């Protein structure tokens, strides 16, 4: 069932964040929302870089089908990010762009994105997992009421921030126990406000939310989470494939599993489905997950 969500200031901030200032034909400037974070959220940089690349693809009807990226330095939310786009190739049906995000005269992120004309072809997909519907799960307001009163201050602060994306995990065991669990999870996600029905922008919002919760899944098997202050966690790389047009007017199921953790790194795969079971995107990410050095 689709919906027309009410406007939400946090969603409006995200849309403004993705609306980059064009400085030159292939040079853009993006800003970060001032929400008290010490570093820029990786999904923001992915989304902004995709917007920058997309705006240099002039042929109509050519949409992103994949991106591959590396985070090389933490982003500073107090200063703008410059996105420098290189036109690698404009072919008969594909276009390739390389984007470097720069702060303080140094690259913090780089990405290669490929765009393709729409065309027909073979069709198949894996089935969506059989999970409870989002209406049968606790919402964020109920989660806060039931569990946040006794939670540590940093966990309460995380959940109480206004956010453009609502999360509704199928299982809550990981958040409230130290048990070592199977490294997989299913989370319903949706935007908390309307997103214009413009395919390029919807792809950027989908890229933004694709960076959420992945590192957590790789920690399930170790009885801990990204909220553990003794851990050093950060996204290292990120890949995404857009199989079908993004649809953001209803809940999406983000199904994740972590096949491996080693060498201070955890790897997680994700599949994003519409409520009706259509697979619209696949994601893979490796992240830093290690104990902080102590004296």
From TrEMBL:
It is an enzyme of class 3 (hydrolase). The keyword Hydrolase applies. Gene3D superfamilies: Acyl-CoA thioesterase, double hotdog domain. Its EC number is 3.1.2.20. InterPro entries: Acyl-CoA_hotdog, Acyl_CoA_thio, HotDog_dom_sf, TesB_ACOT8-like_N, TesB_C. Residues 163-288 form the Acyl-CoA thioesterase 2 C-terminal domain. Keywords: Hydrolase, Lipid metabolism. Residues 36-116 form the Acyl-CoA thioesterase-like N-terminal HotDog domain. GO terms for molecular function: fatty acyl-CoA hydrolase activity. GO terms for biological process: acyl-CoA metabolic process; fatty acid catabolic process. One of its GO terms (cellular component) is cytosol. It catalyses: a fatty acyl-CoA + H2O = a fatty acid + CoA + H(+). Signal peptide: none annotated. CDD domains: Thioesterase_II_repeat1, Thioesterase_II_repeat2. SUPFAM superfamilies: Thioesterase/thiol ester dehydrase-isomerase (SSF54637). Belongs to the C/M/P thioester hydrolase family. Homotetramer. This is Acyl-CoA thioesterase 2. It comes from Shinella granuli.
């Amino acid at each position: 069932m689709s919906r027309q969500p009410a406007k939400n200031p946090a969603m409006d901030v995200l849309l403004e964040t993705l609306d980059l200032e064009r400085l030159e034909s292939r040079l853009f400037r993006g800003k970060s929302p001032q929400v008290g974070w010490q570093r820029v959220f990786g999904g923001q940089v992915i989304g902004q870089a995709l917007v920058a690349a997309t705006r240099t693809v002039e042929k109509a009807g050519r949409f992103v089908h994949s991106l591959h990226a590396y985070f090389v330095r933490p982003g500073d939310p107090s200063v703008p990010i410059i996105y420098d786009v290189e036109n690698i190739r404009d072919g008969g049906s594909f276009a390739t762009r390389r984007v470097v995000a720069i702060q303080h005269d140094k690259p913090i992120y780089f990405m290669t994105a490929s765009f393709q004309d729409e065309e027909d072809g073979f069709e198949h997909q894996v089935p969506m997992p059989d999970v409870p519907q989002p209406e049968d799960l606790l919402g964020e307001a109920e989660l806060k009421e039931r569990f946040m009163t006794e939670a540590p201050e940093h966990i309460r602060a995380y959940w109480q921030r206004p956010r453009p994306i609502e999360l509704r995990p199928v299982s809550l065991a990981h958040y409230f126990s130290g048990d070592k669990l199977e490294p997989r999870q299913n989370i319903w996600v949706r935007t908390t406000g309307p997103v214009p029905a413009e395919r390029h922008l919807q792809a950027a919002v989908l890229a933004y939310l694709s960076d959420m919760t992945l590192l957590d899944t790789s920690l399930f098997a170790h009885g801990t989470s990204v909220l553990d202050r003794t851990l050093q966690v950060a996204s290292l790389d990120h890949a995404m494939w857009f199989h079908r047009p993004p649809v953001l007017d209803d809940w999406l199921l983000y199904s994740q599993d972590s096949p491996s953790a080693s060498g201070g790194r955890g790897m997680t795969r994700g599949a994003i489905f519409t409520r009706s079971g259509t697979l619209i995107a696949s994601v893979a990410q490796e992240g830093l997950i290690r104990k902080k050095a102590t004296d």
